Photosystem I assembly protein Ycf3 (Candidatus Methanofastidiosum methylothiophilum), 387 residues
Amino acid sequence: MVSKNQEKAFDVLWDNTTYKAITNFRQGKYNEAAELAKFSIDIAKKAYGKDSTKVAISMNNLSLVYEVQGKLLEAEELSIKALAIWEKALGPDDPDVATYLNNLAGIYVSRGKYKDAEPLYKRSLEIKQKALGPNHIEIATSYNNLAELYRLEKRYNEAEALYQKSLEIFKHNKDNKNPNIASTYNNLAEIYKIKGQYNEALSLHKMAFEIWKNTLGSDHPDIATAINNIAGIYYLEGNYSEAEKLYKEVLKIDEKTYGKNHHYTAMTYNNIALVKEGLGQYDDAERYFKEAIQISQNTLGETHPCLVTFVNNLAGLYRAREKYQDAEFFFKKGLIILEKAFGSEHPDVAMAMLNLAEMYETNGRIEEAKKLSEGARNIYKKALKRN
């Protein structure tokens, strides 16, 4: 510990360093933000002790940077430590505990640990509702986060209901230019896209883009998200040339912001691959799909659920080109990942089984196809009974 005079000096130093770390983070300057957050942890430990709330704040800030950079294990470790310090210091129902719970839940979502994330999001929401009331802006953000988890779990009706609740709170507060309302527009648009309501989805994505551009600036990473989603609508409508142009804009922003070896960059490679496939440029599509898979394996590991999309897309390309041995390898890889992530009776596992069955049928392996199709039907029947 330090003397009172030294503590005042450390207060100023910690405040300034933390402010700079947060500012750099908001500007998308993640390497600079990480170094400043590390420095603020060192300052806080030396000045206030390893269990002080300032250490927790600094650890939480660094975990947020690491999450965006794709360093998910490091982010999770820091977030758990920060939450433990805060709960010990101020109790489990302190309003700021809700923030730490929310951040840890977000990391779990990024790691594909959806079952671990849901109770944290719900506990965070309950704390905020008790402390702030039902119509506070923070409640809208919590609804949006929980809805996003439900969307990823394909619980679309639950997700849509929560997105609408989030928007109602923003409108109640007359806060139509908040960057967080743009996130809600963006996420609700994804639900409409899944339902095939492309005009509604495109309108919401464009609204999100305008808010982010006006509040965050044209170089902010969220702009890449908005452009990516608009490109996705063009792709679904068959406007491949326009989609490719926009996806390549996104790739430039991703590589500048995150570097090549990041999951967001992998997603953009996958999207460009889909466009290339739509344009009949199959060799280019294969190359982009493989790049997406390699980056994703490097950043998330070989068993993350997000990898399945890339693996299945490449398998589908091989099937269409009658490269059945390659297609089988990647369809099986996707099935194994889903079984490990969600268990053997999840509907996504059934869909993966049907993909493999369809390929077997095309390749004349009828008995194997029948066996997989029957297994998939049984999974769907059990799922319907549960619901």
In short: The radius of gyration is 23 Å. The chain has a mean pLDDT of 91.
